[in-house]
């Protein structure tokens, strides 16, 4: 198989040129993806932890999900959807031609209706970086690099993320441990926390069963998690440190961000023991801890 690596280059942004505020739930895998991206690129940002019950922190927005990123690069701008946030900010870091506002306009929201009759917003091109030909070649020296990155970013959103809840709420014991973690790390009042921990754990145990059926998972959902994780490791291969080559690319950061929310839980420990993910995962931790400006 031909070895493909992305090119590493550096860009230093002027101090204070991009002011970022991330509205999040800490234990949300989509929010974790955005944090992994921002941390790896050494971008400073403020965090606003949103109360998941009242959500008063995002009352300013008609978009009622997290993550939301408020970016000020001359004028304030709201970015929604984790993959749009990542693609838009990465485009901004690479491109010297366009304002962030112009870049965000390349990711229009399209209203669609699900089979259940629920109206949702979709972003058709959210895995694309909006670069000119010269910029594209700097980031993706060959076409296969871009195609591979987009494929696995989409895989993380469309498949991997849906394995998290059925695994962390797999049993009543695991559901209670998961909600203990959620309450401890999240923003809850005292009574809200008690309610969420015990009532939420019971509710999510049963919800996880519905999710298991919806996504056609096996009786033992761990097997689906193990298979998916090993599929990712196989795609990275033995001849690369990361899918991005010597440095993580957007697919690496997406997969790491999704898996990271299980840290400290039984599902995470089982995954580390029963799959081949540990070496790659440890390399990702080390790469992000360096908080460089490699893009």
Automatic annotation (TrEMBL):
Q: Please state the span of the N-terminal signal peptide per the UniProt entry.
A: 1-19
Q: In which pathway does it act?
A: Lipid metabolism; prostaglandin biosynthesis
| Top class in the EC scheme | isomerase
One example of the protein's molecular function in GO is: prostaglandin-E synthase activity
Q: Where is the GST C-terminal domain?
A: 181-295
Domain of life of the native organism? Eukaryota
Reaction(s) catalysed by this chain's protein: prostaglandin H2 = prostaglandin E2; prostaglandin H2 = (12S)-hydroxy-(5Z,8E,10E)-heptadecatrienoate + malonaldehyde
Q: Where in the cell is it found?
A: Endomembrane system
Recorded hits in InterPro entries, A to Z, give: GLR_AS, Glutathione-S-Trfase_C-like, Glutathione-S-Trfase_C_sf, Glutathione_S-Trfase, Glutathione_S-Trfase_N, PGES2, PGES2_C, Thioredoxin-like_sf
Q: Which PANTHER family does this entry report, sorted A to Z? A: MICROSOMAL PROSTAGLANDIN E SYNTHASE-2, PROSTAGLANDIN E SYNTHASE 2
Q: What is this protein called?
A: Prostaglandin E synthase 2
